[in-house]
Specification:
The protein is mostly helical. It has a single domain (about 5-115), classed as de novo design (two linked rop proteins), CATH 1.20.1440. It is about 75% helix and about 0% strand. The protein has four helices and no strands. It has helices at about 10-25, 35-55, 60-85, 90-115. Helix 1 runs antiparallel to helix 2 (about 35-55), helix 2 (about 35-55) packs antiparallel against helix 3 and helix 3 packs antiparallel against helix 4 (about 90-115). The two termini are about 25 Å apart.
């Protein structure tokens, strides 16, 4: 695989990380080691796993890391719910983050499908 930074799914996931960091800056200080940290770790895990998987030697390995990234996307999407319910995220911000998670998840699903597609027989 080439440069992971050229993958549209990585670009979108990186943008999601930046958005999560911006939106969690105003979370209460007592959440620094709680929801703030958890959301940031989940977010960073997505493009990190895409980057790591792209550097592996096979499509099968890359697909495995893309699945891990998809799991982190689900985790982040859920974490937006209590953040909103606790009043740490505005409804609009939570929806924007969750929509970005859904978009990244769809992109990862397409990547996984491409990586796991059986080779055409001759």
């Amino acid at each position: 695989m080439g440069d992971y930074r050229q993958l549209s799914v990585w670009v979108k996931a990186h943008q999601l990380v930046l958005l999560v960091y911006r939106k969690t800056q105003r979370f209460p200080a007592d959440e620094r080691f709680g929801l703030t940290s958890q959301m940031r770790r989940s977010a960073v895990s997505i493009p990190s796993n895409i980057a790591e998987g792209s550097g592996r030697g096979s499509d099968q390995d890359f697909a495995r890391f893309a699945r891990i990234a998809a799991g982190s996307t689900n985790e982040l999407e859920y974490q937006c719910i209590p953040a909103k319910d606790l009043g740490y995220l505005a409804e609009q911000d939570a929806m924007r983050l969750m929509q970005s998670c859904a978009e990244v998840r769809r992109m990862l699903a397409r990547l996984i499908a491409t990586l796991t597609k059986p080779a055409a027989s001759s």
